[in-house]
Amino acid sequence: MQKRIKAYIKLMRPEHYIKNFLLALPAFFAGNMFAVNTLVWLVFGFLAFSFAASTVYILNDIKDVEKDRQHEVKKNRPIASGLVSCQEAALLGALLFFLSQAIVFFMVHNLFHPANILLILYLLINILYSFGLKNKPILDVMILATGFVLRVLFGGLIIDCIVSQWLCLTIMMFSLYMGLGKRRNELRKLSGENTREVLAFYSESFLNGTMLMSKTLGVMFYSLWSALVVSKNNYMIWTVPLVLAILMKYELDIEGDSFGDPVEVLLSDKVLFLLAVLYVIAVMWIELG
């Protein structure tokens, strides 16, 4: 019984919930993240988005079960390994979706609230991704990056906070950089395997070039945003070198023996994680100090 419960939890991919901390960015940079009401709404929003994301992960695992069984790492996922049946996974996904909607309704008392429309949009885009768009070059990584931007916008809507367009562009570019890096490493490690069709359309030189483009634009947008928009003083611009250090350490990691999954890279590298924590502390000191 305990083994099955662990399999269900693993199927939800709770380690990927770290992505949903992006919901807190609007409140964090607005300087009101630690107000009690804001924290409560952020916790509920985090749970709602996390359950919705788990629904997407489960649907994707059901759709790709046969390909996952041929993959070096994904063959150990609960459905691919046979620990959880497709029917059980579908029931869990449906339950998580309804829980997500119930939380949103509790928060805003309206399922047609803009925040929930964004959440449904996230689900629809990712359903289309699972059922074919992930095999379309460029569109596949654009969808992944859009998911990160939707998280930030959702976080702004649930606390009624305006989200800077510069922040959205920054998140989009850095997300593209990480998504392209993942594709590049998959291309290196899965060459000749039939586990991700879209890799046939990519070359390593193309992915390296677009990674560089996305990273450069991300740093430029972040620099403009930190200098012109977010900071109440002139100190925020000095976080740019720290952001560069984080990017360099991240790139050093994915140049090694890695599939390039951003969550796995962050959680497996203590130095990178420490740099991320230092960045959070620096911003808190600047914005709240």
UniProtKB/TrEMBL annotation:
The chain crosses the membrane at residues 20-36, 42-59, 79-99, 111-131, 163-180, 201-223, 271-288. Gene3D superfamilies: UbiA prenyltransferase. One of its GO terms (molecular function) is transferase activity, transferring alkyl or aryl (other than methyl) groups. Keywords: Membrane, Transmembrane, Transmembrane helix. The keyword Membrane applies. Pfam families: UbiA (PF01040). NCBIfam families: PRK12324.1-4. This is UbiA family prenyltransferase. It comes from Eubacterium plexicaudatum ASF492.
